[in-house]
Amino acid sequence: MWKPWEKSTGPRSPEGKATASQNANKGGIRPMIRQLGKLLREQENSLHELSTVDCENTATAVVAAALDGNHWAIQELVRAIDDYA
Q1: More confident position, 69 or 46
Q2: pTM for this one?
Q3: Fewer beta carbons within 10 angstroms: which end of the chain, N or C?
């Protein structure tokens, strides 16, 4: 039986390996959406950290509460992006 995968060598040079590593990359909008998802996750983590900080003054407490109120929206965006990408 013919088994061509047994004789294939794949890329050998670093340049060829770098090129081959991008074969599955679809290009277009997906990389931008993945980057957006990554940024939103970072924002979500930052908001969570801020919401757990003990606020010493009223202004900081108001800002933290407002940001924490948007936390659910960021979670929904991250879920939608993960489903798409």
Answers
A1: 46
A2: 0.43
A3: N
| Orientation angle between helical segments 30-51 and 58-69, nearest 10 degrees | 140
Residue at 8: amino acid letter: S
pLDDT band at 21 (very low <50, low <70, confident <90, very high): confident
* Amino acid identity, position 75: Q
In the chain, pLDDT over 90 holds for what percent of residues? 7
Runs of H (alpha helix) within the chain: 14-20, 30-51, 58-69, 71-84
**Alpha-carbon gap, residue 21 to 79, rounded angstroms:** 27
Tokens of 20: 């081959």
